[in-house]
Amino acid sequence: MMCSSLIRAGRGLRVWLAVGLFAGAAAALRAEPAGKSFLVFDNMHYKGMPDLTPLGFIPNAVIYEQKKTWIPLIQAHQMLDETMFKNLVRSNIVGRPGPVVIDIEYSYLSRNKTTTDADVRFNFKLFITLAHWAHEAAPGHLVGYYGHGLFPEEPGKEYAAETREFLKSIDAFFPSMYVHGTQTPEQWRQKLELLLQQARQIAPEKPVYPYLWGQYHEGGPHALEFVSGEYEKFQLENCVKYGCDGVVYWSGGKPPWTPATRELPWFKTVTDFLAAKPRCTGAAQWDVPKAGPDGKRPAYENE
Questions:
Q1: Rounded to a whole number, what is the distance in angstroms from the first to the last CA of the chain?
Q2: What is the SS3 assignment for 181-242?
Q3: Strand ranges of the sheet holding 61-64, from the earlier edge strand across to the other edge
Q4: Which of 70, 103, 146, 283 is the most exposed place for a label (fewest CB within 10 A)?
Q5: Span 102-147, pLDDT tens digits
Q6: For the whole model, what pTM was predicted?
Q7: Domains of the chain
Q8: What are the respective helix, strand and coil percentages of the chain, to the nearest 5?
């Protein structure tokens, strides 16, 4: 879940929507019915962390890429072993009623200097197959992918047919919305707004659960420092405002959990939010983006 750089939100999706490659997508933005519970999933890994379900967190399963064994197979265009993958899913959902999120990063869905057309087509096949296997191994659980944007990686516009098949294989979007030290709160908000608009355009029936982290991302200013309570409140309020169905909280193992962790401002903000029994909005509230001198929307840093 930790990546050195994130793809700019929606760079390719804006092109797809402009040229009509998702002609069958609903034009209207979907909003959850007013009163539906806003869900907060727990995907945190702080060493020594207690059970947080009494506070309202719902544990969810994440299936991490096994780098030593999976990457050589993927690079050779060989499918993973079905029994192994399904057993991995089954073992991870024990005690975790939330979604199954598959985390495979840098298996690209568009051509670049190191990724060929054959690579892209295999990667689509891989992602679709694993989603089907996860559904079979974890019936009743939502299944999706941790995303740099809405997708595991940004799809190329020439793969619209494959992208549609991928969308059919998943139940929800899990885009990364971690905080970077060089990113202003307004840039964070703009990215979230754009992601939600795109999700409602290409797959209005699918819920969106952004990944949040109570610490700043590595590799920049304030790396691994805890965010403020004010910033955490800003994130949660905007997730509700723009029609998210909930959020997923992730963390690494450091620093280890201590009794004082419960008193950290960011964590108290989340628990206060949960205690208020948050609800989804009846209608997503969209801001009108402010154009720059060139008439274009601002760019999003570190996304």
A1: 14
A2: CCCCHHHHHHHHHHHHHHHHHHCCCCCECCEEECEECCCCCCCCCECCHHHHHHHHHHHHHC
A3: 61-64, 100-103, 143-147, 174-175
A4: 283
A5: 999 989 999 999 999 999 999 999 999 999 999 999 999 999 999 9
A6: 0.85
A7: 34-56+172-278 (3.40.50), 61-95+100-170 (no CATH)
A8: 35, 15, 50
